[in-house]
Amino acid sequence: MIGYATLGTNDLARATAFYDALLAEMGAKRMFELERGIIWGVPNRPSLGVLKPFNGEAATVGNGTMISLMAESPAQVQQIHAKALALGGTNEGDAGPRGTSGFYGGYFRDLDGNKLCVFCYAR
After folding, report:
1. Residue 59 forms part of a structural domain
2. Which domain holds residue 106?
3. Are 48 and 23 spatial neighbours (Cβ–Cβ below 8 Å)?
4. Is residue 1 predicted with pLDDT exceeding 70?
5. With the C-alpha atoms ordered 45, 53, 110, 40, is the resulting torsion angle positive or negative?
6. Which of 55, 72, 76, 105 has the fewest CB neighbours in a 10 Å radius?
């Protein structure tokens, strides 16, 4: 149901470098390049954008806001989580199983403090 999600940034060049490298791990490429941001994705799937806020105000982190990126396997979850940390992101929860539903996820914050989760359902 989700078509796309966006995160705010105050340093577009830094955010673009972070997400170019991170989302390449999932096969995503730049779909749109706008004056105030970039949107990445793969055809016919939800996409992710990083933008300077339209109103010209500073980007801030939403309390309780999180974007989740769906991975193919627990190994890819671990790979993407590790890549985010290697790119300067901060750990918000090591990659691993959560609960008994088969959910496998890792949590991190990007360079602007936005919270993300990379996850899959392990079978």
Report:
1. no
2. 4-53+65-121
3. yes
4. no
5. positive
6. 55
Both tokens of 89, joined, read: 């992101």
Q: How far is CA 59 from CA 49, 53, 68, in A?
A: 13, 6, 19
Q: What secondary structure, in 3-state letters, does the chain show?
A: CCCEEEEECCCHHHHHHHHHHHHHCCCCEEEEEECCEEEEECCCCCEEEEECCCCCCCCCCCCCCCEEEECCCHHHHHHHHHHHHHCCCEEEEEEEEECCCCEEEEEEECCCCCEEEEEEECC
CATH code assigned at 40: 3.10.180.10
pTM exceeds 0.85 for this model: yes
| Per-residue pLDDT reduced to its tens digit, 56-115 | 999 998 888 999 999 999 999 999 999 999 999 999 999 999 988 899 999 999 999 999
Question: How many structural domains compose the chain?
Answer: 1
Residue 44 makes CB contacts below 8 A (sequence gap 6+) with none
Q: Using CB atoms within 10 Å of the CB of residue 99, give its burial: 0 to 12 exposed, 13 to 18 middle, 19+ buried.
A: exposed
Q: Please indicate, yes or no, if residue 70 is contained in any of the structural domains.
A: yes
